Amino acid sequence: MELVAGCYEQVLFGFAVRPEPDASGDQEQKWTSVADFTHHAHTASLSAVAVSSRFVVTGSKDETIHIYDMKKKVDHGALVHHSGTITCLKFHGNRHLISGAEDGLICVWDAKKWECLKSIKAHKGHVTFLSIHPSGKLALSVGTDKTLRTWNLVEGRSAFIKNIKQNAHIVEWSPRGEKYVVVILNKIDVYQVDTASVSGTITNEKRVSSLTFLSESVLAVAGDEEVVRFFDCDSLMRLCEFKAHDNRIKDMFSFEIPEHHVIVTASSDGFIKMWKLMQNKKVPPSLLCEVKTNARLTCLGVWLDRATDAKESLPLAAEPSVVSKEESQINKKEAGNMVQEEERQSKPNQKCGLNDARNKPTKGNSLVSTKKRKTVETLEKKKRKKKK
């Protein structure tokens, strides 16, 4: 198992963690961490990270997505299609990566050949966050154009658009896809798919910086503060809270391994902490281990050295183009709250390589080596200086 975290200092950290050999007292079991790698491929601060069974990908303010091969521990190259900060990265299984950026685009990448399959002009402003439905056929995105959009990933087009009063900065599906949450500042609106409406609103003390579902009904919420709170999405009640760090928490990640349900937190204080969740979520978790990075952390992921479930790995491109019964039900139920998109996207299935490729020679639909990218950037800088 590897904890990976990006920071303002342009570095991706990797720490291998494992349980200590002496596990006689299971409740008090501690884990040890060992620094495994540092990856310094970006030229600006890291803004997003995503993990598959083999790769870790990072997005940055330098407008690139870098790929790191966790099996070989080597740089695997860069994806350079976006213009503007990469704001969100999500894997669906091991076959597809979906990226969003300040250029308003959502791109679907083949995570085997590292080619762009679809490039969608998603928002008139920035794409601030996206979340993929567990089926892999739908996605939700929010942007600075004050809209929440539902995407048909099979056909690469917008399904519905919902206008919201303010700019939302987080959207997240629940594990079974029966509900989703939309975050605006310190307010978390809980949407139920079966009623296509907001079932309630959770209010956090400070602006929400990260959240993760611990179960279909329990939500872990971190804000611009040192505390993590657990909320019940059905009753909207606070279950518990605990001080996790000495500074604001920037990102969280939760996962399950045999005998452990774990939540990992990363903070501006430079620490990554791993917590063991109790069965009763009203009881605060216990600390398993902590890692000091001496950096201002911005994003977090966990690489588990195991194959992803076969069901998760079904490629989006192999899904039937006919809308499934599940997707149809979701679309119909959301139709009451969402209006049909006013402006049909002119070329929703446009390939990455065709999107302004003539004017941007470093942008493309295939993998670019780090060395080649930096060489091109150096040449372009020299040309600009000569023109001056």
UniProtKB/TrEMBL annotation:
GO process annotations (BP): negative regulation of signal transduction; ribosome biogenesis
Q: What is its main location?
A: nucleus
Q: Which InterPro entries match?
A: PAK1-Kinase_Regulator, WD40/YVTN_repeat-like_dom_sf, WD40_PAC1, WD40_repeat_CS, WD40_repeat_dom_sf, WD40_rpt
Check the record and name the Gene3D superfamilies matching this protein.
YVTN repeat-like/Quinoprotein amine dehydrogenase (2.130.10.10)
- Note down the stretches annotated as region Disordered: 325-388
Please give one Pfam family short name: WD40
For this record, an example GO cellular component is:
nucleolus
Give the stretches traversing the membrane.
none
Give the subcellular location: Nucleus, Nucleolus
Q: Where is the composition biased (Basic and acidic residues)?
A: 325-346
Q: What keywords are annotated for this sequence in UniProt?
A: Nucleus, Repeat, Ribosome biogenesis, Signal transduction inhibitor, WD repeat
Enumerate the SUPFAM superfamilies for this protein: WD40 repeat-like (SSF50978)
- Show me the WD repeat boundaries: 39-71, 79-119, 120-161, 258-285
Q: SMART domains from the xrefs?
A: WD40
Q: Which PANTHER family match?
A: P21-ACTIVATED PROTEIN KINASE-INTERACTING PROTEIN 1 (PTHR44675:SF1), PAK1 INTERACTING PROTEIN 1 (PTHR44675)
What is the annotated quaternary arrangement, including any partners?
Interacts with PAK1.
- Its biological function? Negatively regulates the PAK1 kinase. PAK1 is a member of the PAK kinase family, which has been shown to play a positive role in the regulation of signaling pathways involving MAPK8 and RELA. PAK1 exists as an inactive homodimer, which is activated by binding of small GTPases such as CDC42 to an N-terminal regulatory domain. PAK1IP1 also binds to the N-terminus of PAK1, and inhibits the specific activation of PAK1 by CDC42. May be involved in ribosomal large subunit assembly.
Q: What is this protein called?
A: p21-activated protein kinase-interacting protein 1
